[in-house]
Write a structure and sequence with these properties.
single chain; alpha+beta; four-stranded antiparallel β-sheet; 1 helix; about 40% strand; elongated
């Protein structure tokens, strides 16, 4: 049985291009909930929130959306 990596999903809050806060979770569902919470709490002009799957290196979502 494979044990989930407790630091697989990484949420980062950056301001003015510099990391301000990080969090890691083993569950994508939990990490997505934290992502949404952080956007609600910290989503202001100049802020960037991203959710990355550290195992694959893929950015799963970001705010504001990249165009």
């Amino acid at each position: 049985m494979r044990v989930p990596d407790p630091e697989r999903y990484h949420v980062t809050l950056s301001r003015a291009g510099r990391p301000a806060m990080h969090g890691w979770w083993g569950s994508e569902v939990t990490a997505r909930g934290k992502f949404t919470e952080w956007v609600g709490d910290w989503g202001r002009p100049g802020a960037q929130v991203t959710l990355v799957d550290e195992e694959t290196g893929a950015t799963l979502t970001s705010w504001p959306d990249k165009e």
